[in-house]
Write a structure and sequence with these properties.
single chain, 460 residues, alpha/beta, Urease, subunit C, domain 1, TIM Barrel, 2 domains, 13 helices, globular, binds N-(aminocarbonyl)-beta-alanine
């Protein structure tokens, strides 16, 4: 099967030019002006942007969390991702206390296998690092292609590990060529503030926000960075939200320490006024919480300065019924919000169209850097001869309004209800196959493949 995409404006992390792309089978086989080839399918991309398929490095599909399951499973969640131009997602396998990492992997494989529309990979979340867990790291990296290990410095009693476990894990992961990633907030301070608010009868969603002030993120970010410095581990901080945390990364750069940073689209687009809406604010109860306008500014600047490399969604939707479990106690509201479908169009609309970032930067943070950091480049993350033909034909002029009534998330509310965006993924190809065309789905579930990732030795 062959496809010719004609006359598109091809954007990579470094280039911007108009050419044709010839695809044979699953990969790009030629790029050039006026290619003289015959193809089974011809797509005219005149006036459109042609982008590498998006990679969302942080999603939670069908995740058991806080007494519920995130409401998008592998089928609905990856289909929503594809509608929005994200062709690869990295989800989190989460170890249960007392069980092995391989036990968790088998459980997650059972949920995903045969159901996935997009390509996908796994991070392994280590919640119980001990002598047994330690022996599994080598094979997870070498045999399973899972080279990134997630840790939590918060959610004590369920997900959090202590600093001793953290440095032990870092040393082991370093030995075998992986990277340690982290949810960096100080769980003990947060738990103290939560208890204090509850004792005072402060039970509305606003107090979720007030129990996680910026300092809790700044402190944990600095501590994690110091542990990575001490052990020499590759390090990546997920969902960074705040100016204080960014400044800890800048401090590390002064001693020539490389720390990779992810932010999420909601932290760029929304501000803390979402917590002024009574119980409706439960829609945006997530950790860390949405922050101030000054933090938004700091995040945009950090993207342009290269302090932030990747843009994710931390897609973790819950049905409103589940959110309502916390109607009288914010600690019972499952943390997370939907967004997997909207990352590409929101960053184009709010970032590129409003002149905050370049198109090359958009491609870099939505695709290329994640592929490089997590061992998928150049198979994924770019448009080049030999790379997977994961391609988004993006119409920069299409205006539309985001709403729960039209999104593809399996979630009965939108975190962006009524938000008008400019730009839309029109045609999405995954490994050479047209998967989405003007909203209609052309592939079956199960087309998505697991991506085995390589060891991470010289990242970026
Ligand atoms: O609130 C969030 N972010 N839910 C998902 C779990 C996590 O901390 O990433
Ligand atoms: Zn987190
Ligand atoms: Zn998350």
């Amino acid at each position: 099967m062959s496809t010719l995409i004609k006359n598109g404006r091809i954007i990579t992390a470094t280039d911007d030019y108009t050419a044709d792309i010839f695809i044979e089978g699953e990969t790009v086989s030629a790029i050039g002006l006026n290619l003289n080839v015959s193809a089974d399918t011809i797509i005219d991309a005149s006036g459109k942007l042609v982008l590498p398929g998006g990679i969302d490095p942080h999603v939670h599909l069908e995740m058991p969390f806080m007494g519920a399951f995130s409401s998008d499973n592998y089928e609905t969640g990856t289909l929503a991702a594809m509608h929005g131009g994200t062709t690869t997602v990295i989800d989190f396998v989460i170890q249960s206390h007392g069980k092995s990492l391989y036990d968790a992997l088998r459980e997650w494989q059972g949920r995903a296998t045969g159901k996935v529309f997009s390509d996908y990979a796994f991070h392994m979340a280590v919640t119980d690092f001990n002598a047994d867990t330690q022996t599994e790291i080598k094979d997870l990296i070498g045999k399973e292609g899972i080279s990134s290990f997630k840790t939590f410095m918060a959610y004590k009693g369920s997900l959090m590990i202590d600093d001793r476990q953290m440095v032990g894990l870092m040393k082991e992961v370093k030995k075998h060529g992986g990277i340690v990633t982290v949810h960096a907030t100080n769980g003990d301070i947060i738990d103290y503030l939560v208890a204090e608010n509850k004792a005072m009868g402060n039970l509305s969603p606003l107090y979720h926000y007030l129990s996680q002030p910026e300092i809790t993120e700044t402190e944990a970010t600095g501590r994690f960075i110091d542990m990575a410095w001490q052990t020499g581990s590759n390090s990546y901080i997920v969902h960074m939200t705040s100016e204080g945390a960014l400044n800890k990364v800048r401090d590390a750069q002064k001693r020539d320490q490389k720390v990779f940073v992810e932010t999420c689209i909601q932290y760029l687009v929304l501000d803390a006024s979402v917590y002024d809406r009574g119980f409706e604010s439960a829609k945006w109860v997530m950790s860390p919480p949405i922050r101030e306008k000054k933090d938004q500014k700091a995040l945009w600047a950090a993207i342009n300065q290269g302090v932030v490399q990747t843009l994710a969604t931390d897609h973790c939707p819950f049905m409103w019924e589940d959110k309502c479990k916390g109607e009288h106690d914010f600690t019972k509201i499952p943390n997370g919000a939907p967004g997997i479908e909207h990352r590409m169009e929101l960053i184009f609309s709010e970032g590129v169209d409003k002149g905050k970032i370049s198109l090359n930067k958009m491609v870099d943070i939505t695709s290329t850097s994640s592929a490089k950091i997590f061992g998928m480049f150049p198979k994924k993350g770019t448009i080049a001869v030999g790379s997977d033909a994961d391609i988004v034909i993006f119409n920069p002029g299409t205006k539309h309004v985001l709403s729960a009534s039209t999104h593809h998330h399996h979630c009965d509310y939108s975190a962006y209800e009524g938000h008008e965006v400019t730009g839309k993924a029109e045609t999405v190809l995954l490994r050479g196959k047209v998967a989405i065309d003007h909203g209609s789905v052309k592939i079956q579930k199960g087309y998505g493949e697991f991506v085995k990732r390589s060891k991470l030795t010289n990242i970026l």
